[in-house]
Design a protein that fits this description.
- The complex is a heterodimer of chains A (about 210) and B (about 800).
- Chain A has helices spanning about 25-30, 85-90, 100-115, 120-125, 140-160, 175-185, 200-205, and strands spanning about 1-10, 10-15, 50, 55-60, 70-75.
- With about 210 residues, chain A is an alpha+beta fold.
- Chain A folds into two domains: about 1-75, Beta-grasp domain (Ubiquitin-like (UB roll), Roll); about 85-185, [2Fe-2S]-binding domain (DNA polymerase, domain 1, Orthogonal Bundle), CATH 1.10.150.
- Chain A has a five-stranded mixed sheet with strand order 2-1-5-3-4, sandwiched between helices.
- In chain A, strand 3 (about 50) and strand 4 (about 55-60) form a beta hairpin.
- With about 800 residues, chain B is α+β, with helices and mostly antiparallel strands.
- Chain B has 20 helices and 28 strands.
- In chain B, the strands form seven sheets. A seven-stranded mixed sheet of chain B has the order 3-5-1-12-9-10-11. Chain B has a five-stranded mixed sheet with strand order 7-15-14-13-8, with helices on both faces. A four-stranded mixed sheet of chain B has the order 18-26-27-28, sandwiched between helices.
- The chains are: A alpha+beta (about 210), B alpha+beta (about 800).
- Chains A and B meet through helix 1, helix 2, helix 3, helix 4 and helix 5 of A and helix 1 and helix 18 of B.
Chain lengths: ~210, ~800
């Protein structure tokens, strides 16, 4: 057993874990954070996506011990009380049906929009290709991402014009790691812990 | 059967209200089965056959029992007396063979993934670890993979005691097909192969069983579309009196037919919980789910069409061979039957000759998959109509218009014997062609052909109909289905004036809570937010026949509307007392009863709720409980229809297919929530497109499931599909009071042939007349190159 310390959705935890314990099982079973779900066993579906120190990872592909000392944000900690603009946009645009992929889809979108605040249709589709949805056909998910991007950009403009930092509905959301993450993203370094998945079509192209 | 309030201005039926379901789903507060924990919970893992077909010489779990955390372990023989055979509910023919199907195999395994033992431990990791210690000695038997080979004399048998792999045969004929064939100028035949696909609901199946040993009562949580079926069938199968079994479908993460079943793991969990007197949970890994959840499609269709030179269709002949897999699951044999009625599509044939066979193989059982038989049938007719158009040199839309049932001809009884109540194929086709830019795309296609472009453009047409709203109980009875087809709802007015509807359908993403709330809000004049909808728990919603076959809104919604109307009638009596008027003199609108001619004298639904509940001054015979239960059993199906048009660019060098644009105009009758309907169409089109281009469950010759993970089985991502252009025409159904026709399966039924027709259309200059699904670059490339006429490009 290994003693690890994590901060999950703002709460600190110390726990002895088996070295083989997956982060998603640590979240779900050890901590009872069942908002993060499991949809596959090969890192294809993205249902288990969380932010690990501000970067999106597939938590089925990270060991709990790798998250030692990390700050983890799950769907349950994305907003304090209210809704994050991405959550709101998924609801407004009918970007979910059964809702099983939704937690992961929203977390990936949050990461995508930090990296690219104004993505095109194609950039959204490419950016979310690691998250599978079987219900929506993705059409309304793409719409939701555009809507969330627009709202986040408006918020950022307001902030840039001297208003208090952070989203008006969620004071303190703009955490230090967000800016760190933007730096990482803009530097192009690849620190994501999830395995690089081939694009589905590439299996045919190669 | 319209309600008293049908004409009031503030109707919410028809509005794209945002879903009530979303709040807990977007915040991670859903209750998926795998989230649930009860005190003393144990975890079970299932040892599965690593081979397609073998005799079990011995199965030994004694070493597994020694593993850390293991509490119990059982072989199939250990639990043989704990349950019966898994049932099939649809006896499609007198010659149907129903093999014994034990939840855990005892003598033989018949597909890769067949259960051979169960291990129960204090922790899911321990249970999974202990599977390694389960020892099963197999004597290998030959795999049975190819359905045509399986039917030949001397083929190895999946069920040796049955003496054949042929599970059933039946046929149907109307009109004189041979005469039609002789009168025809053109007779075209094609073989279409419906590849095997997998439903892949994003939530893998999961089950939790909790016993109360002292009373021998059980609660079973299961990720299912059909909690009521599960309760009845598990009760009989496991010998648990029905009143002692409560089944709950909590939040369910998609189904698509894959959860329209009664599964081995449900029986095993109940058996283990009863043996140990402790709760136990099982959750499938994705790999396990792909092996042990039913697959779909998997048919060979030999189709022949006879027509005149000027493009009038005369006769249609279909020979269907269906791969059932190793056992009959709940509705396995019914899938071809559900298809058989829609093979003639929307066209006026004089003769139809249909015959089908079901075949056992050593693969995962097939069963319903979004559309169940109707997508396959629609594919066959829409593909061969495009082939006929090419043969006759007609535009595919022109050929269809010469043969479809015109708007003025409804109701129309087809050669297959179904009476279509309403439709307007002209309107949908005109609108689709306009949205799609049909003429411009045809011009571009001609230019590319002229230039011998490397990338050719194809246009695929699909003018479909289907039978939805399963379905009339009488029809089920006539066709060997052993359950009814009605649906039921209870509506109750609560003391504070809020309303609760308890429904027998069981949603898993369709938004029933929202749609049913809209219906109740209109019927009772209460606000949308003041309506609650309960479902999916047999202790709360005791009656119901669940969700499949695009039935929930048509039948369940009709029951909700009628129950709400009856509650208003009950409330009217109480309101009359409050207003000191006769019930007949009251008008009801916007949730208010008012005295005719004196609109100031009025009482709201809320006033009535309080008065009824307190019961201080009720009229003689009035009940303080304002509640009504209503059941709706349709006399006939409904028939969604529409026109889907697909433009595909095909790279003739690489065979890569890019769907460039897609327009869908659907007629699902009256719409309760257009946002939800559009979402159903988007998702449905995507699933059908995925069958056309991406998905195939592949078995090798030894019976191994090669596509056993999502690495190998290509569920499309956002990057693989495109935005769709959608619109609706609205021709109300005449077969249910709402006028709704069903939207859950339409998109999937329509899109597969539209996409494949586009691919083939692009390649017509190369002499290509078919590309088998999925139309991967390799298949497309081979289709181009094996054709002698292939040249240029």
């Amino acid at each position: 057993m290994v003693l690890i310390s994590t901060t999950v959705d703002g709460l600190s935890h110390q726990e002895d874990v088996e070295p083989r314990l997956l982060l998603v099982h640590y979240l779900r079973r050890s901590l009872g954070r069942t908002g993060t779900v499991i949809g596959c066993d090969t890192s294809n579906c993205g249902a288990c996506t969380v932010l690990l120190d501000g970067l999106s990872v597939k938590s089925c592909t990270v060991l709990a011990i790798q998250a030692d000392g990390s700050d983890i944000t799950t769907i349950q900690g994305l907003a304090d009380g209210g809704l994050h603009p991405v959550q709101k946009a998924f609801r407004e645009n009918h970007g979910l049906q059964c809702g099983y992929c939704t937690a992961g889809m929203i977390m990936s979108t949050v990461d995508l929009l930090l990296e690219n605040p104004d993505p095109s249709d194609q950039q959204i589709r490419d950016g979310l290709e690691g998250n599978l949805c079987r219900c929506t056909g993705y059409h309304n998910i793409v719409k939701a991402v555009h809507a969330a991007a627009a709202e986040l950009r408006t918020t950022a403009e307001v902030a840039a014009q001297g208003a208090p930092a952070g989203h008006p509905e969620e004071p303190g959301r703009d955490r230090p790691e967000d800016s760190l993450m933007r730096d990482v993203a803009s530097s192009g370094s690849d620190v994501t812990l999830s395995a690089d998945q081939p694009r589905p079509g590439e299996r045919y192209r190669s | 059967m319209s309600t008293d309030t049908a004409s009031r201005a503030a109707r919410v039926v028809g509005q794209p209200l945002r879903r009530k379901e979303d709040a807990h789903l977007i915040t991670g507060q859903a209750r998926w089965t795998d989230n649930l924990i009860v005190p003393g919970l144990l975890h079970m893992a299932i040892a599965r056959s690593p081979t397609a077909h073998a005799r079990i010489k011995s199965a030994d779990v004694s070493a597994a029992l020694e593993q850390p955390g293991v509490v119990a372990a059982f072989t199939g023989a250990d639990l043989a007396a704990d349950y019966g055979s898994l049932p099939t509910a649809w006896h499609v023919s007198d010659d149907l063979i129903v093999p014994d199907h034990r939840p855990i195999a005892t003598d033989e395994v018949r597909y890769l993934g067949d259960a051979v033992a169960v291990v129960v431990a204090d922790d899911a990791y321990h249970a999974a670890d202990a599977l390694e210690a389960v020892e099963v000695d197999y004597e290998h038997l030959p795999a049975v993979i190819d359905i045509e080979a399986a039917l030949r004399d001397g083929a190895p048998l999946v069920h040796a005691d049955k003496g054949t792999n042929r599970a059933f045969t039946w046929g149907f004929a109307a009109g004189d097909y041979e005469a039609a064939r002789q009168h025809a100028d053109v007779v075209l035949s094609r073989r279409f192969v419906q590849q095997r696909v997998m439903p892949v609901a994003m939530e893998p199946r999961a089950v939790m069983a909790e016993p109360t040993p002292a009373t021998q009562k059980f609660t079973l949580w299961t990720s299912t579309q059909v909690p009521h079926f599960v309760r009845i069938l598990m009760s009989t199968m496991c010998g648990i009196p029905e009143q002692k079994l409560r089944v709950i479908a909590p939040d369910v993460g998609g189904g698509f037919g894959g959860k329209l079943n009664v599964y081995a793991e449900e029986a095993i969990a109940l058996a283990v919980a009863r043996r140990l007197g402790r709760p136990v949970k099982w959750t499938a890994s994705r790999g396990e789910d792909l092996q042990a959840t039913t697959h779909g499609r998997d048919m060979i269709q030999d189709v022949e069409i006879a027509a005149t030179r000027d493009g009038r269709v005369l006769g249609l002949k279909v020979r269907l061979t269906s791969d059932l897999g190793a056992y009959l699951q709940l509705l396995t044999p019914a899938v071809p039957l559900l298809g058989r009625y829609v093979y003639p599509g929307i066209y006026k044939f004089e003769a139809h000759d249909f015959f089908c066979e079901g075949v056992f193989t050593t693969k995962t059982p097939t069963d319903s998959y979004r559309g169940a038989g109707r997508p396959e049938a629609t594919f066959a007719i829409e593909r061969i109509m495009d082939e006929l158009a090419a043969e006759l040199g007609l535009d595919p839309l022109t050929l269809r218009a010469r043969n479809w049932i015109t708007h003025s001809e409804f109701p129309y009884t087809t050669i297959a014997g179904l009476t279509y109540d309403s439709g307007n194929y002209e309107a949908a086709t005109d609108r689709a062609a306009e949205l799609f830019g049909y003429d411009d795309l045809r011009r571009e296609q001609a230019e590319r052909r002229q230039r011998q472009d490397r990338v050719q453009l194809g246009i695929g047409v699909s003018t479909y109909t289907e039978m939805a709203g399963l379905g009339p109980s009488r029809w089920f009875g006539e066709h060997g289905y052993s359950v009814g087809g009605w649906e039921t709802a209870t509506v109750r007015l609560l003391p504070t004036g809020r309303v609760e509807a308890i429904v027998g359908t069981s949603p898993h993403g369709q938004g029933h809570v929202t749609s049913f709330s809209q219906i109740v809000a209109d019927a009772m004049g209460v606000s949308f937010d003041d309506v609650g909808v309960l479902h999916g728990d047999t202790e709360v919603a005791t009656w119901g026949l669940d969700t499949y076959g695009s039935r929930s809104l048509l039948l369940g919604g009709a029951a909700v509307a009628e129950a709400a109307r009856q509650v208003v009638d009950q409330a009217r009596v109480v309101a009359a007392r409050l207003l000191e008027a006769s019930p007949d003199d009251l008008e009801f609108a916007n949730g208010r009863f008012s005295v005719r001619g004196d609109p100031e004298a009025a009482k709201t639904i809320r006033d009535v709720a309080v008065a009824a509940f307190t019961a201080h001054d009720l009229p003689q015979g009035a009940d303080p409980v304002l509640m009504a239960e209503a059941t709706f059993d349709p006399d006939a199906f409904s028939f969604p229809s529409g026109t889907h048009l697909c433009a595909a660019e095909v790279d003739t060098k690489t065979g890569f297919v890019k769907v460039r644009s897609y327009a869908a105009v659907d007629d699902v009758g009256t719409v309760v929530n257009p946002m939800i309907v559009e979402g159903q169409i988007h998702g449905g089109v995507t699933q059908g497109l995925a069958q056309a281009l991406y998905e195939q469950a592949v078995y090798d010759a030894a019976g191994n499931l090669v596509t056993g993970s999502l690495v190998d089985y290509l569920v499309p991502s956002a990057a693989d599909v495109l935005p769709y252009v959608t619109d609706r025409t609205e021709t109300p159904a005449m077969t249910n009071p709402l006028g709704a026709k069903g939207a859950g399966e339409a998109g999937t039924i329509a899109s597969t042939p539209a996409v494949v027709n586009a691919v083939v259309d692009a390649l017509r200059p190369y002499g290509v007349t078919d590309v088998s699904m999925p139309c991967t670059p390799e298949r497309v490339w081979r289709a181009i190159h094996r054709t002698p006429a292939a040249a240029g490009g």
